[in-house]
Amino acid sequence: MMSNIMRESHIMKIHYLTALVAVGFVIIHIMVRITQGFANSLEFESVIANYKSIPYAIVLEAMLILISVHGFNGLRIILLELKQGNAYENAVTYGCLVAMIALIAYGSRTIIMASMGMVEA
Amino acid sequence: MTKDGALPKGFERPSSSPSQEKYEKVKPSSKTTTLRISKFNPKSDSTSTFSEFKVHYEKWTTVLDAILEVKQQMDHSIGVRYSCRQATCGSCGMIINGKPKLACFTKISELDSDSVTVEPMNNFPIIRDLAVGFERLIATHKRIKPYIIRDDSEVTSETKEFLQSPEDVEKYIQFAGCIKCGLCNSACPTMATDSSFVGPQALAQAYRYVADNRDKGKDERLKIIDERHGIWGCHFAGSCSQVCPKGVDPAMGIQLLRGYLLGYRK
Question: Residue B247 is part of which domain span?
Answer without folding.
Answer: 135-262
